[in-house]
Amino acid sequence: PYHIKVRFEIVENTNLEKEYYAPYNGLLVECFPLSEGYPVAPVAQAVGEGDSIDLTVEYIVERNANPIMFLEIKPPSNLRYISGRQEADSQMKKRFLQLADKYPSFIDVFYGISTFGTRVAYYTLNTETQEIFPSEIEASRSRIVDTAPIGWWDSDIMEVEGLPPGETRFLRMLEEVKARCNNFEASKRQFPGTS
């Protein structure tokens, strides 16, 4: 939507993570309206250890009090640093673990989105095999290994990426999540007693 695009354009030259909270909140609330049964909950998470503990905000989209996807935000300037991407990747995989017992049974693919500004990496958890994608790249104690390559953040939510006008990969993924929920709700009405 135009008003969301404008909100992202206002903050596009900032490196402050918190400046992206409002645009992403607006985008998620627009795509997952509360009136349709999709609460979008901002959640503050402690990040780091010892004296360097910081807080970051993520968004969890729910349906019937169950998480159906989540989104984590990082400042765009951190994308260029291996350590920044490794931290984001680690947090994403940790969050999948924390939510593993909470996602609904009808979700066969549970989505997580990692953002650096408007650059996006799509994470998935296959709920049947419990496999997370992108797969883990093994670190080394004796050499530097880029365990979260910059190419994972290959999508920009502001770009159309060869799709029909106004439809980004990001919005297409959000619609897929919503469709899974709606299909499940329809099957419950058609076949009462299913869960």
UniProtKB/TrEMBL annotation:
Q: What is this protein called?
A: Uncharacterized protein
Look up and give the organism this protein is from: Conidiobolus coronatus (strain ATCC 28846 / CBS 209.66 / NRRL 28638)
